[in-house]
Each structure stands twice: as structure tokens, then as C-alpha cells.
Amino acid sequence: VRKVHLVPKAHYGGRHAVTMLPGGGIGPECMGYVRDIFKYIGAPVDFEIVDIDPNADNDDDLKYAITTIKRNGVCLKGNIETKSEAAYVTSRNVALRNELDMYAYVLHCKSFPGVATRHKDIDIHIIRQNTEGEYAMLEHESVKGVIESMKVVTASNSERVARFAFEFAKKNGRKKVTTVHKANIMKLSDGLFLETSRRVAKDYPELEHNDLIIDNCCMQLVSRPQQFDVMLMTNLYGSIVSNVVCGILGGAGIHSGRNYGDHYAVFEPGTRNTGTAIAGKNVANPIAMINASIDMLEQLGHHFHADLIKAAVDKTINEDHIMTPDLGGQASSTQVVEAIIDNIDLYMKNKVSF
Ligand code: ADP
Ligand code: MG
């Protein structure tokens, strides 16, 4: 049996070292909020912070970041910028995922009752192939005026992400897995992905399995999103569907995403935005990065600290209605963080159970 979700051994005294990649845009300020909260509650985590120069014309910073993740096993990440638009300079975010062979991405999209949205009671897990497909970044101009871009789908990666999705569904008590594809047009590539998921589904008779073409999937999502449970898809569809689902749940600022391989786990805001336009203005929603840090604490087995922050975040949004403008609120980023810390205080001092 394949061993996934490897938890690194505790370092001295039960503390964990974790790589922190603040990235660009709103990444550094959001990391600052996470560090404030961790410090306040005494979370047993030591961050190893690595800044990656977006203007660098070499990948030394990235290589160093990857080395630290290999050592620590776990990383909290903002979106890394690549300033160069030259075709030969690849996205550092993609390179990081490929280098660490993090073939599965998990995005949990659950409604916050306190956020006003058209659709209620959504609880979807998107599982996305995270290392190939259209993100193979193999493009070239075969003859002048003709660009070819390769979408790579392999049986082995389709198999492991499908198995990941079904195992995930089983472990988390979910009922249904939906494979999303365009196999009617991309008969070989998406066909392989779909066929593989159907074959893997046979090993999980307790789970319902169906499939849906990506176009219909988008229509269903914006009209009746409650029908979805666990969704399995290739890389590009995953990026688009993630944004659709986050959009109907309140935007880019709330949900977090998890990158998994067999050996490493990287946690980040779910829609992977840089937020360049809103950086430094004290308006960015800090929740997505805080949720990513909660996922990270859970991965490391620090459930008390994870539950404490989660309860404080939920109360801040759902009961106190203290939110940034992207969620229709009037609070600044720092006011939201202060409210979360006040709520943590409430839970700790009054020993209120959460
Ligand atoms: P990209 O990184 O793909 O360039 P952007 O940074 O432009 O994407 O983000 C897309 C949209 O989501 C923008 O309107 C941005 O302001 C918004 N956004 C992203 N993250 C947050 C956040 N944490 N809080 C509020 N708005 C956000
Ligand atoms: Mg983007």
C-alpha cells in the first residue's frame, strides 16, 4: 500500500521546523499575520523563511527553498512571482511543485455561514492533478506562426491522483467522486485520465463515481453546486474550477489549498493569487493564509492549536461579522487578525470549549 501524507518526525521537544516562502504581493503581510497568531498561542513551529527574488535570472533561491522543504517536509507558501516573461523562464510555483513531485492538490471549499453568498451549504473537495497536463510548459513555434503546446497525461500520474482522490474520499467519509474531463474532444489525453479513474473506482465500491464534461461541470457549479462532493480533475480544469468554486463562496481570500506528494506537503491560499494590486494597503483578506496555516498544523498533528485558531476564525467571520471588503465587510486586514487573536484569548482565558 502506498504511503501518502508522510508526517515528518517531531524535532526537539515536539517542535517542527517548517519552510516559509512568503512570495510576492500580499504574501509577506499575510505571513506576518500567521506568525503573530502562532506566537500568541505558542504554536510549536519554527519557521525557516526563504525569500525568492522575483527579478533573479537564476534559480538559486528556488533551489535553496526546495532543499529546505526536502529537509523540513512541510512548507507554508505565498505565490512566488516570476517577473520575466521570456518563454524559457518557467513559473517558479510550477517548478517547485514538479521538483517535489507533489502530484495532488486538495482544495476544500466549504461555505462560511457568515459570508453572504447566493449558494448555501457547499462542501466540496477539489482534487487536482498538480504536475502535468497543460502545465507541462512544453511550448514551441514549430514553423513561423504556428505554436504547439503539449498537454502531457501519463497513466502513472493519472493513477496516483485518482487513487489519492478515492482514498481521500474514503478516509474522510465522503460519498461520491466526480471525474471532470473533456474526453469527448481530447479523446486520448482526457480519455486516459477518465478511464484510469473509472478503473480505480472499481476498487472503491462503497463510493459512488460519476463523470462530467468540464463545460457542463461549470454550468452545474454555478447553478446547483450542492450536488458535488469530491471532484477529481486534470491540472488546468482544476485551476479554473477552483476559481469558480472559490468565487461562488466569497472569492480568493478565504479558502486554502494543499499540495501533496509522497514525501512533502506544501500549504498555500487556495486560488494561488499574488494580490499585487492590493499589497501593502491593509485590505487583503488574511483568512486564506491563516486557513493554510491551520491545514499545516493539522498535518503536523498539532490539533489543539489548529482547532483553537479555526474556532477563532469561524467566530470572527460567522458571529462577529468582522471581515475585509472582499467579503462585504469594512475591517482592515489587521483588524480581522486582532479580532481573531481576541477570540483566541476568549477561548483560552475563559477556558471556553471550542
Ligand atoms: P494573480 O495572482 O493571478 O495575478 P490576482 O493577484 O490579481 O491574481 O488576484 C485575483 C483577484 O483576487 C484580485 O482581484 C485580487 O485583489 C483578489 N484577491 C486575491 N487574494 C486576495 C485576498 N487575500 N484578499 C482579497 N482579495 C484577494
Ligand atoms: Mg492567477
Task: Give an account of the 3D structure.
This protein is α/β, with parallel strands linked by helices and about 350 residues long. Helix content is about 40%, strand content about 20%. The protein is built from 10 helices and 12 strands. The strands form 2 sheets. Strands 2-1-3-12-11-4-5-10-8-9 form a 10-stranded mixed beta sheet, sandwiched between helices. A two-stranded antiparallel ribbon has the order 6-7. The mean pLDDT is about 95. Adenosine-5'-diphosphate binds near residues 273, 278, 284 and 285.
Can you tag this structure with a few keywords?
10 helices; binds adenosine-5'-diphosphate; 39% helix; two-stranded antiparallel sheet; 10-stranded mixed beta sheet; alpha/beta; 354 residues; binds magnesium ion; globular
Task: Kindly summarize this structure in a few lines.
The protein has 354 residues and is of the alpha/beta class.
What topology does this entry show?
Blueprint: E1 16-21, H1 27-41, E2 45-49, H2 60-72, E3 74-77, H3 92-99, E4 104-110, E5 123-129, E6 133-143, E7 146-152, H4 155-171, E8 176-181, H5 189-201, E9 208-213, H6 214-223, E10 230-233, H7 235-248, E11 256-260, E12 265-269, H8 287-299, H9 303-319, H10 333-349
Parallel strand pairs: 1-2, 1-3, 3-12, 5-10, 8-9, 8-10
Antiparallel strand pairs: 4-5, 4-11, 6-7, 11-12
Helix pairs in contact: 1-10, 4-5, 6-7, 8-9, 9-10
The protein binds adenosine-5'-diphosphate and magnesium ion.
> How many strands?
12
Q: Could you say which small molecules are bound to this protein?
A: adenosine-5'-diphosphate, magnesium ion
Ends distance: 36 Å
What structural category arises from helix and sheet content? alpha/beta
Strand content: 15-25%
Order of helices and strands: EHEHEHEEEEHEHEHEHEEHHH
- Rg to the nearest angstrom? 20 Å
Q: What is the residue-mean pLDDT, rounded to a whole number?
A: 94
Shape type: globular
Unreliable runs, pLDDT <50, ≥5 residues?
none
Largest sheet: 10 strands, mixed
Instruction: Please bin the fraction of helical residues.
Output: 25-40%
Spatial strand sequence of the major β-sheet:
2-1-3-12-11-4-5-10-8-9
- Tally of helical runs: 10
